[in-house]
Amino acid sequence: MADLDQRRHTFHVAIENWQHDFNIGTVVRNANAFLAAEVHIVGLRRWNRRGAMVTDRYQHVRHHPTIDDFTGWAATADLPIIGIDNLPGSRPMETVTLPRECVLIFGQEGPGLSDAARAACSELFSIAQYGSTRSINAGVASGIAMHSWVRAHAGPPPD
């Protein structure tokens, strides 16, 4: 972890965990792959680590019991909270550059971002979809958003 800490990027990711979401492991694995500064789990502390494929040993994971705890941390860290959800009024992520320093927050599978999380977001972005499904998996959405950040700010990985 110490080696990775020397190269971590300046974005964080957060996911709400009010219903014991199974996508958290995938979010943690994606955060490790894209070298996020930290993963924030908002809500329940317990999550299914199988999807992380042991990457949680190499990724900083912080728990916030409530959205207020999380938003207080983000304010202290001077990081804007950017919501990724296909809500009415969300701007297409494909048309913007994500901020260099930010927290990307994802809602749960099904309900998406809670009302409290939406209210805490400085901006809301959606990921373009063209098929018949209402939404893509939160773990998949996290990978797309992190890749968008990397394309804008990190460039190609070292050899």
Architecture overview:
With 159 residues, the chain is of the alpha/beta class. The protein has helices spanning 2-5, 24-33, 67-76, 115-120, 138-153; strands at 11-17, 39-43, 61-64, 81-84, 91-92, 102-106, 123-126. Strands 3-2-1-6-4-7-5 form a seven-stranded parallel beta sheet, sandwiched between helices. α2 runs parallel beside α5 (138-153). The longest helix has 16 residues, at 138-153. It is globular, with a radius of gyration of 14 Å. The two termini are 19 Å apart.
CATH level 3 topology: Alpha/beta knot
Oligomer: single chain
CATH architecture: 3-Layer(aba) Sandwich
* Radius of gyration computed on alpha carbons: 14 Å
- Strand arrangement across the biggest beta sheet: 3-2-1-6-4-7-5
Please report the number of helical segments. Answer: 5
Helix content: 25-40%
